[in-house]
Amino acid sequence: MSSYYSISEKKIKPWTTIIVFFLSILIFSVLYFTVLAQDGNLVRERERYHAVGCATAIQEKLETITSRVQTLADSIIEKPDDTEFHKAMVINIWTRLHDEADIPLKNILLAPDGVVSYFYPAEGNESMTGFNFMDATLPGNAPAIEACKTGKMLISDPFDMKQGGKGIAGRYPIFRKDGSLWGLISFSIEIDDLVKSLHLSDMLGDGVDYSLWYTSADGSKVALTEHGVSNDPIDYEFSMKNLNWTLSLSLPQNRIDRMRIITAIIMILMVSSMIALYVYEHSRMQLTNELLYELANKDSLTGCHSRRYLNTYLLNLENGKWRDETKEYSLAIVDLDHFKQINDIGGHSNGDDILRTVAHLLSSTVNADRGDAIIRFGGDEFILLYADRTPEEFRTGLEHVLEEVRKIRSDASPNVKISLSGGGIHSSELSSRSYVEFFKVADQRLYIAKQRGRDRFVFDSEIRIIEK
Fold it and tell me: For residues 158 and 167, is the Cβ–Cβ distance under 8 A?
């Protein structure tokens, strides 16, 4: 007597069973290797996130230095013969970079007519007295001579420093208002000091190997610093002014192996959920894009916009003007008073908490829909951009910020007074739409605010606004 099963057995041929078997193997294999490949891509993307973040941090360190050098150059142009004022500005800028922005410069040199007449700090730089950057017979002078010819700052190739280690140097030419060459500013920093100031190990985590290198004129790779031996690294190229550097990162192989096992298990369990897998993959890619944007354009400590956001989305770097020319921006530069003292008393963790608190307070004053933005410029310094505000709104808003910052108290350092100093310029003061002009005036007013005792904003002063 026949049954359903006996009829089925008759209908199913051996070769059909074999096809179904191998087809199942093929489907599971395709799913497994697809997910496994995606898993490998995730690891590579994580490495790329790290590389983008580290490279951005290195670039921002250099941009912080060059912006300060620009301020020094502008001051020399305004007062080309006031050597005592030049020296005071050099010391002030070196101190702010060293103590507040954690940038350990080896030196800043002033070289009228190309000959070093003043340098800071004195210790360890005595051999630079009277050094002539315009002497083409001396090694390493090519960038200085080229900078004076082109009128642009140049960064030297890494070189062996007299104090030991490898360093880089910037040569910034200065021209008087009549177009004649005044001389140049030079600064140098040791590569290892630059890398240490970034705390890459804390940023990247345990087990991540990295190396930083550049390609020399003869095409050879010159390693600047490295940690461990990179295995199948991801290379991220980025520019440092006129130099092209590469950061190589790689995760340990055993991490990838563990992820393969997990991925294989997930693959088997999710065969019947292909739609969910598709949704997951789509969401993952969307999250990847969001993470890349946040990493490149947001400051990880405070959540404020980074300088890259300013350069990429707000400024037209070709002419230095605002990208959205319909906006009437007013700009203020602020930084925390005696921030080094705050760190020394309460520790860097306490300093980070205070920075986050201040950043949150500053962010509460902006209207992103209108075009306002808060940018962490470096260390404890912020740029405040307000769009289409009246002078009274601009002044009242910043004075309110001062009052609110004074109310901040820290459990780790309850007796330390928290305050801000700042310099601001309203859009009505300049017909120019040049960001450089806005920044120059605001930065000078910040300097005056500190001279006048800190804990204040300077909105106008004896500063003569010069429009180009």
Answer: yes
Q: Are strands 315-316 and 234-240 parallel, antiparallel or unpaired?
A: unpaired
Q: How far apart are CA 332 and CA 334, in angstroms?
A: 6
- State both tokens at 334: 């602020």
Burial of 24 (0-12, 13-18, 19+ CB in 10 A): exposed
Tell me whether strands 420-425 and 456-458 are parallel, antiparallel or unpaired: parallel
| 385 beta partners | 331, 373
Name beta bridge partners: 373.
Answer: 385
What residue ranges of the chain have pLDDT lower than 70?
1-33, 35-44, 46, 163, 199-207, 217, 229-231, 251-284, 286-290, 293, 461-468
Bridge partners (DSSP) listed for residue 213: 223, 246
Q: Which amino acid is at 182?
A: W
Is the domain defined by 34-288 classed in CATH 3.90.180.10?
no
- The CATH number corresponding to 307-458 among 3.10.105.10, 3.40.190.10, 3.30.70.270, 3.90.480.10 equals 3.30.70.270
For 395, the token pair is 């002044």
pLDDT of residue 203: 62
Locate CATH 3.30.70.270 in the chain.
Answer: 307-458
The whole model's pTM is what?
0.46
Q: What is the 3-state secondary structure (H, E, C) of 58-79?
A: HHHHHHHHHHHHHHHHHHHHHC
- How many residues can be counted in the chain? 468
Taking the alpha carbons of 320, 65, 247, 287 in that order, is the dihedral positive or negative? negative
b (16+ CB within 10 A) / e for 238-277: bebbebebbbbbbbeeeebeebeeebbeebeeeeeeeeeb
Peptide bond before 121: cis, by omega within 30 degrees of 0?
A: yes
